[in-house]
Amino acid sequence: MIEDMRDNGVVSVGPEPLSFEDVVRVARGGAAVRLSDDAVAAMTAARSRVEELAESPTPAYGVSTGFGALASRHIEPPLRARLQRSLIRSHAAGSGPEVETEVVRAMMLLRLRTLATGHTGIRPATARVLEALLNARITPVVHEYGSLGCSGDLAPLSHVALTIMGEGVVTDAGGARVEAGEAMKRAGIEPVEFAAKEGLALINGTEGMLGMLILALDDLARLLKTADIAAAMSVEGLLGTDRVFAADLQALRPHPGQAASAANLRTLLAGSGIMAGHRDGSCTLVQDAYSLRCAPQVAGAARDTMSHAASVAMRELCSAIDNPVVLEDGRVESNGNFHGAPVAYVLDFLAIAVADLASMSERRTDRFLDVARNHGLPAFLADDPGVDSGHMIAQYTQAAIVSELKRLAVPASVDSIPSSAMQEDHVSMGWSAARKLRRAIDGLTRVLAVELVTAARGIELRAPSAPAPATGAVIAAIRQEVPGPGPDRFLAPEIESVVRQVADGTLVAAAESVTGPLA
Fold first, then answer.
1. Nearest alpha carbon to residue 447 among 482, 389, 407, 403
2. 11-205 maps to which CATH number?
3. Where are the domains of the chain?
4. Cβ-based neighbour number of residue 388 at 10 Å
5. Which DSSP letter does residue 78 get?
6. Which residues, at least 6 apart from 90, have a Cβ–Cβ distance to it below 8 Å?
7. pLDDT tens digits, the chain, 519 residues: what are they?
8. Helix axes 469-479, 506-515, angle to 10 degrees
9. Active site amino acids
10. Which residues contact 290 (CB under 8 A, 6 or more apart)?
11. pTM > 0.90: yes or no
12. Residues near 89 by Cβ (< 8 Å), separated by ≥ 6?
């Protein structure tokens, strides 16, 4: 989790796309937001066109009709306020565990930005309430299940819209569960009675899955560096070679992610006393196992996958997703841009990369523990093998997580289930892809933590040979939380401490204090 950024300025929300950094600042750092003057002007212009349609006797979808399979019914003006209330109340049908605050805040911000494009026809005053909720850090309670990722993230966004109406349950700035109306009253925010099309404008988008994609990209930028650090420490501790990471060898297969990962490994291993000590001609090792030798190929492929996912996320940030949409020439048109397939596919793709990174990490850990493969280290890195078990069961924990990650790598986006009386007969399941990716990222964090704590122990058991300055700095950071080699101790709290160091970037910062910024 990144540091609190609430004091780092206000994020302006207008028709132009937000940056990944701004989304993270608001979602994770609690930064405030402000609708720009351009946003207000765009919303005002589009709203005038919606009001013209609302007054027309000709039915217009989302303005004067029912929704989904009920779109054929024309709704008379006296019932239209009720139409919007009923839409939100009925669609706020989520179930299961509560979704994390950072995810809901990201979703709220991204929907606010879509409103700010002027393509949804919402009133500026309604958008201002969403702005105010973000700034008051009032977060609607959204549930795990409910979105099919087509017609947008309907149920999750409906829970947000329900709050704008002053209904439902929220968490306040202190994290307490409160009735929405009460929390808004305390914050001086007036609930809204939706006018024509406004309920639909708040819920018909892919912002939930997009928000989780952007947060995942933020996490993976850190975890990919961490994976290179862990691989470097394992190569060093297992008496591997860095010669295979040479730039001219990597250039024979010019994938950019591979080049970046290999450059990190060379930098991290520079000046290693352990490596220098087994290059005196007496080493009989011919070549390292794949989990060591091919580390940049796997971590590099994950980087390139992440780059592709980031390009999709950036295009989504440039999008205005609603149905119907208000166009610049005044037309109000139905469309299918709410289908989540582009985002769903890359969310699934990232889960595959995460599972494979973790699988390779677990294999390196296992090599440290096996006397037949660890080149002179004690069995399981135990202080007194037989009396002590060392890291035997830490590897079991890794294996259990990796097995789970392989199941999470099964794509959600191929599993369409028709809905709305077959009107919505193909859906993306992008929300489900995003939810399982979040679990996968947590799993990768834990797997890397076990490799790091194991590799640190293995390297220290090579004393008096000294590690590289960069890997030594990482070991020193770990030792701030976890003692060095010795008799068996209660291991779970030590693993959890390193999990936190991986998640908050402490270990990347330790390495970069020596190397400078890693790729």
1. 403
2. 1.10.275.10
3. 11-205, 216-309+340-515
4. 17
5. G
6. none
7. 333 334 458 999 999 999 999 999 999 999 999 999 999 999 999 999 988 888 877 777 767 777 666 677 777 777 777 888 999 999 999 999 999 999 999 999 999 999 999 999 999 999 999 999 999 999 999 999 999 988 889 999 999 999 999 999 999 999 999 999 999 999 999 999 999 899 999 999 999 999 999 999 999 999 999 999 999 999 999 999 999 999 999 999 999 999 999 999 999 999 999 998 777 666 667 689 999 999 999 999 999 999 999 999 999 999 999 988 999 888 888 888 889 999 999 999 999 999 999 999 999 999 999 999 999 999 999 999 999 999 999 999 999 999 999 999 999 999 888 887 777 778 888 999 999 999 999 999 999 999 999 999 999 999 999 999 999 999 999 999 999 999 999 999 999 999 999 999 999 999 999 999 999
8. 150
9. 61
10. none
11. yes
12. 162, 167
312: Cα separation from own chain's centroid? 14
Residues whose CB falls within 8 Å of the CB of residue 306, separated by 6 or more in sequence, listed in order: 217, 220, 221, 224, 257, 350, 353
Pull the structure tokens for residue 194. 């939706």
Q: Rg of the chain's alpha carbons, rounded to an integer?
A: 26
Sign, Cα dihedral of 69, 72, 76, 80: positive
E-assigned strands of 125-226?
Answer: 139-140, 143-145, 169-171, 177-179
Q: Is domain 216-309+340-515 annotated with CATH 1.20.1250.20?
A: no
End-to-end CA distance of the chain: 20
Neighbours of 86 (CB within 10 A): 14
Give the three-class secondary structure for 325.
strand
Quick one: tokens of 36?
């720009």
C-alpha 87/C-alpha 97 separation (Å) is 23
| Contact status, residue 53 vs residue 129, Cβ threshold 8 Å | no
> How many other CB atoms are there within 10 angstroms of residue 53's CB atom?
21
Rounded to 5 degrees, what are φ and ψ at 68?
Answer: 60, -130
